């Protein structure tokens, strides 16, 4: 029986070696064809770039035969193709929607809000009409939310983070483009005390009920923190805050367009992109889950083992 297994393994190894040889020959022939073109510096066309993007997926040893370009260039081509794809399908012949509020009017709204804290949108709307600016009251209300505020609330928020850091967790989403130019949504929960990822998952279609299930898996057996920080993303809906309260957690929503208030989660996303996602092309959900699982093992090792101790 052992002899039969050894024979089958030898045959499979020969077929695998022949497959790698054929793919290597194909890769080298493609580069020779590009070098024979009459240009001082070989220019790679769209089919050349597509060839290397697909070869990277089909052949694990593709870097060994790469001479014309670097692996980072192949990944940059994929990112450029992703941006071009969504730019083309989102392009319209003429602008739609409301006209953009002029910068002069925006600055005037911000000034009125700062100098008159008790004024509401109706009062500012009337003042602007007397000054000759025809802006809707709803637009004024929207811009009032973006007006610079007094620094005292920011100090209170930072004091809250410092005083309760061991009892705070945060959750957030980030997107990852795939080789087919679609988007995957990665959800994660991170603790503030040890910067540890408590739970993560990947989906193509995030919903509020899906997020509720992820929270149940992240905090089993009454292991929930006291506070949970998350933004005002529409994917959460009304179900997620209610589910957070049912877990005996106090939901803490960040302000509109204020990612700095969830800085721990934002910094982890930046680390994940810099260390992993900027160097790979994701194929599908299972591929991204496998990559993130391996990265979390690395991230946990680096977090718990400083350089001075680990050499």
Description:
There is one protein chain. By secondary structure, this protein is an alpha/beta fold. It has 3 domains: 88 residues, no CATH class; 46 residues; 158 residues, Nucleotidyltransferase, domain 5 (2-Layer Sandwich). The chain is 53% helix and 11% strand. It has a 5-stranded mixed beta sheet with strand order 3-2-1-4-5, with helices on both faces. A hairpin with a 5-residue loop joins strand 1 and strand 2. Helix 8 runs parallel beside helix 9. The C terminus is likely disordered.
Write the layout of secondary structure elements.
Blueprint lengths: L1 H34 L10 H13 L12 H19 L13 H13 L5 H10 L6 H8 L6 H13 L4 E10 L5 E9 L5 E7 L4 H11 L8 E4 L8 H8 L3 E4 L9 H13 L9 H20 L2 H4 L1
Parallel strand pairs: 1-4, 4-5
Antiparallel strand pairs: 1-2, 2-3
Which short descriptors sum up this protein?
single chain, 311 residues, alpha/beta, Nucleotidyltransferase, domain 5, five-stranded mixed β-sheet, 12 helices, 53% helix, 11% strand, globular
How would a crystallographer describe the biggest sheet?
5 strands, mixed
CA(first)-CA(last) distance: 46 Å
CATH topology of the largest domain: Nucleotidyltransferase, domain 5
Shape: globular
Quote the average pLDDT: 81
- Rg measurement, Å: 27 Å
Count of the domains? 3
Given as residue ranges, the uncertain stretches (5+ residues, pLDDT < 50) are 306-311
Q: Let me know the CATH homologous superfamily of the largest domain.
A: Ribonuclease H-like superfamily/Ribonuclease H
Topology as a string of helices (H) and strands (E): HHHHHHHEEEHEHEHHH
Q: Look at the helices and sheets and give the structural class.
A: alpha/beta
Helix content: 40-55%
Number of discrete helical segments? 12
Numbering strands along the chain, what is their spatial order in the largest sheet? 3-2-1-4-5
CATH architecture of the largest domain: 2-Layer Sandwich
CATH top level of the largest domain?
Alpha Beta
What is the strand content? 5-15%
What's the number of extended β-strand segments? 5
